[in-house]
Amino acid sequence: MRLKADANIVILTGAGVSAESGIDTFRDSGGLWEQHRVEDVATPEAFARDPELVLRFYDMRRAAIQTCEPNAAHHALARLQRAWAGQVTLVTQNVDDLHDRAAATAGVEDARVIHMHGEHLNAWCTACDTRSRWRATLIERPACPACGEAALRPDIVWFGEIPYRMDEIIAAVESADLFVSIGTSGAVYPAAGLVRMAGEAGAQTLELNLEPSQGSHWFDEARHGPATRLVAQWVEQLLG
Ligand code: NAD
Ligand code: APR
Question: Distance between CA 33 and CA 149 in Å, rounded?
Fold first, then answer.
């Protein structure tokens, strides 16, 4: 897969890129959607019906994420972000901050990480629409730092809600020379549709995943195996 020096690369990651850091994926065996029903913990209706159950689920997720470290796949991507500064857009479906931490460790100035499903480290005030960095629990319904209302919820995109920054994501995909999908099952739209958009816009497309995903057939090339090995090898190939 040859690339011109000024090529633009869009990378889409899913839960699989963080699996080897110890964060459960959603649809692998034993994954989160076998432990919890989506309808109980990942929809606006669930939050309205039983906010404490939803907030306990996110406390558990947040605690798990905060004990984890970026793995070799995150660090390899950070190397790429640094070497191809400004030409790599990293779109993640993950709400963890492992890409951000790996980029900071690598000294990447402008990491351009787009969290299309939100971030577990943020709380979103539904009264004043402010997003605040928030590491503590929300179970006691604390006051919003901006407006004082007890209207904070996890800054996570739930089923039935619209992902963040889709305009930026679509603009990056439509001007990509290479689109790489890493560690996602291709089960959830619109993330799962980005590969077709990239291909139709003329990009080369590559899937790096543990096993064939629901969208493997849309890719020019698909490599299967653990992200820590595949991503490090791919970045090594690109950077030499
Ligand atoms: P969708 O149609 O985009 O995705 C539905 C997917 O949810 C299905 O493909 C299935 O894989 C999964 N799903 C639904 N019920 C499930 C269950 N009981 N067990 C396991 N998996 C289940 O969902 P939507 O409601 O149309 O979502 C619209 C938007 O919400 C999407 O654009 C997506 O970005 C966002 N979203 C966010 C989350 C999240 O937890 N952050 C989860 C899904 C979707
Ligand atoms: N290396 C590479 N890929 C892996 C690894 C690994 N070590 N472990 C698992 N995978 C792959 C699985 O084969 C699977 O295809 O990662 C994918 C994980 O898929 P999901 O669990 O469905 O996670 P994801 O694709 O991120 O889910 C999309 O659904 O519930 C919503 O908002 C949630 O963002 C999430 C979205």
Answer: 32
